[in-house]
Structures are given as structure tokens and as C-alpha cells.
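explain this:

___
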Amino acid sequence: MKRSSNKRWSRANAAYLGAFLGMALGVIHQIHHAFTSVEPDENPLAHIVPEFVGLTVGGALLLAAIAEVRNHLVS
């Protein structure tokens, strides 16, 4: 079966989308904490910021890596 398009995926756009999805996941996670009244034992800011940054950076890296692997396999 022939593929209909060999257009390359943009790593920058994938990273942007991944960062956005990571931020959304971080916000949803904090909303979950608020609704379930689960409070961390540590300072809330020390709990929220690393999770938010980690999810944002992790999402960006993950989707950029997926785009790079896809481009490598297609071309």
C-alpha cells in the first residue's frame, strides 16, 4: 500500500503542541488535587512548579521525538 503523503512533520510544531498538552495535563492534575482535597505534605508551590515544568518540557520533548522518528521512518 502506497502512502498518500510523504510530507515531513515539523518538530517545532510538534514540540509546541506537546508543551501545550503537557501544560493542560498539569492544570488538570492540579484541578484534580483541588477537587479531591489532596494536599501535598510539602509547600504547594514546591509541588506545583516542578510538576508543571516537567510535564511541559516532557510533553514537548516527547512529541518532538515522535515527529523526528516518524520523519526518519517515512523518508
